[in-house]
Amino acid sequence: MTINRRTLLQGSAAIAAGAVLTGPFGRALAQGAGAAPMFTPEEGASLRLLRWVPFVKAEEEAWNANTRAFTEATGVEVTIDQESWEDVRPKAAVAANVGSGPDMVMSWFDDPFQYPDKLVDVTDLCTMLGEAHGGWYDGLAAYGQQDGKWISTPLCAIGNAICYRDSHMKAAGFEEFPTDTEGFLALCAALKEKGTPAGFPHGKAVGDGNNYAHWLLWSHGAQQVDEQGNVTINSPETAAAIEYAKKLYATFIPGTESWLDVNNNRAFLAGEVSLTANGVSLYYAAMNDPALQEIAADIRTTNLPVGPVGKSVELHQTSTISIFSHCKYPNAAKAYLEFMYRSDNMNRWIESASAYCCQALKEFAANPVWTSNPIHAPYARASESLRVNGYAGPLGPASAGAMADYVLVDMFAEAVTGQRSTEEAIANAERRLQRYYR
Which residues cross the membrane (predicted)? Predict the structure, then answer.
């Protein structure tokens, strides 16, 4: 899809019709923050962005409309390519290492740390954005910074929360949703007895699989590495997390070991499961389908239960935007991102995402989307509360490699399916982690 002046839709005219000032090529440039543009696109510039396939159609439409407004204002054409969530990571890595392909990428977690020397330094851009919009949330900022400089621009946290059928929970004998892991296990067992089971991905799901696996580990007080990056996965706490995961898995619908990010959505909306963890997109998929109104009215959301560690510990999927060093027009790329983060444009995108994308900059916590629907409440603090996947060690090539290799996801999957014993699964994860943390 190429977005340029010739394909400008009427909707983008409204987006560009706010407060304006003279842009890089003398065109009117929409400017919510009111400051002069910091970056001037190179003459004749064009850009190509690789992004993940959206789960919320209105989010994509708002992003594209803001992009069209940027093109109208600057003359810089922007092509947007989409790949599945699982395919963005390898596609981006190939582009970085061969030095060709997309100019920018919306990537996951700490993927930029796998090829930091292949990325444009965006310290000037991120410093300006932080100063203009209330500062960055610490967790998201960690995903953009390495060795005192910014290698990527934090975009959002895609909040993860329990989505469940209220009537099914009550039919299983629970008036309130359990807030602790033992009560949660009891609920899942009761749901299975009623023929309305739960289901969480144990497959290589970039978002839901990682979110679930990290919650299992952290909620029991375990961690992959310590503050110095020493591998500490082989612990009694990890064994306890696996034993708990086995009990939960026994209550699940069959087949979750092969689930990717789309599978739990499909199972829930098909009425095959009554409880899973997902982004708010699951609720809106039901809301927007006339055939699923009964399910939509029955959906409730809540945060994941608190385990033996005694506090809420959740991953939340994060996305950043990186500019590859092979980009011929780095100033145009920075100008594009500056434009997309302007107050009016970013607020429009966040609101259109309907609580799916939690802001990286604190100014946007005031967006009315977060209080517009009780369903949104568990997602509202995702950026503030998230724990980085490399916890408790530093983010870097090791944490990025371990995440991309699904070490933690595989450890739980091997154990719950009986492929390995608890001890063998931990030992295998330890061996794999030591390849990255040397």
Answer: none
Domain-embedded: residue 290 = yes
Q: What is the pLDDT of residues 312-333, one digit of tens each?
A: 999 999 999 999 999 999 999 9
Question: 172, 200, 198: which is closest to 274 by C-alpha?
Answer: 198
Q: DSSP character for 337? A: H
Q: What is the 3-state secondary structure (H, E, C) of 136-205?
A: ECHHHHHCCEECCEECCEEEEEECCEEEEEHHHHHHCCCCCCCCEHHHHHHHHHHHHHCCCCECCCCCCC
Amino acid at 348: R
Answer whether residue 45 is part of any domain: yes
Q: What is the DSSP letter of 401?
A: H
Structure tokens at 332: 């145009």
* pLDDT beneath 50, residues of the chain: 1-34
Nearest of 165, 190, 193, 183 to residue 267 by alpha carbon: 165
CA 344 from chain center: how many Å? 22
CATH number at residue 367: 3.40.190.10
Residue 219 falls inside a structural domain = yes
**Both structure tokens of 42:** 């190179």
Question: How buried is 195 (Cβ within 10 angstroms: 0-12 exposed, 13-18 middle, 19+ buried)?
Answer: exposed
pTM assigned to the model: 0.86
DSSP characters over 64-86 = HHHHHHHHHHH--EEEEEEE-HH
Tokens 């440039």 locate to 29
pLDDT given at position 118: 98
